[in-house]
Fold this protein.
Amino acid sequence: MQPVRLGRNQPPRFYRGGPSIAEFRGVPSSGDSVPEDWVGSTTTLFGEASLGLSRLDDGGLLRDAITADPVAWLGPGHTQRFGADPALLVKLLDAGERLPVHCHPDDEFARRHLGCPFGKTEAWIIVGTAVDDSSVYLGFTEDVEPARISEWVMRQETSRILDALHRIEVTPGDSVLVPAGIPHAIGSGVFMVELEEPTDLTVLLEWEGFGVDGNRDGHLRLGYELALSCVDRSGWGSERLAELRRTRGAGRPVRAGVELALPPAADPYFRAHRVRPDRAVWLEPSYAILVVVAGSGTLTTDGGGDLELSRGDTVLIPYGAGEATLRGSVEAVRCLPPAVEQVR
């Protein structure tokens, strides 16, 4: 097997964005209502049969190819634990406007109420910012009673919701882990690589002024009384919040040229390696999505051939491609499923 260069896959969403994805990839813009590029996706949008799924060059679905030969794509250990599911969704996200405050259910809530094995913990690796004071919003500053959250949401007291969250300035190279349940929003102008559990499960706390009806589409068809029970209502102090963040260069080293971009708490859900070769970097066999964020270089695998890479390329590396080497003046984010030995 050989690495697969992936084209863009931008399903329509209700918020604005998309031009930064086009600029990053070096392709014509598809407009400003396609703010997400689902990279190597075997996940569909909530309630959809196929929208969101990635296709290969032959027109077939990546999901079907993996199902036909999961060990070759994912590896024997991963397949034994997760079956034919990569257990990972990677996106490019361009926030053309501030996103509404929302949260995602955890694994237990998803299993109990939605019949889904995955919730939606996610992580953000900031690639670019279009304004000088780009921010994200994450976690309540103090404990909030259920009745107050319900009141804010049903009355759409949006300023109170946003004011109750920590506002965090971000710059390129920063990374943020967003545990399931924690309310959050992404500020206008932020462009990122996003790693997620492989679902599209979202509970909207805010929708007024956005192109979506939260009363209809904001509660996972569960009704808000139940849906809001997945919200993490606890206050996040500065020390606790700091554990979710990493700045550029502060990652845990793996080997020369490779560092872990995310905090240890991310490991049971997904992993992200920031790869910056000095001369050459060895990459162990694994299913992975490689996002080239700067420069250019060459990817060589045991599967054969060299693949020339440059900024904006997204490449799926199957387990069956074997060992790989990345060379050149290049910086990439290597997105990986959870390690097989991790238990959550």
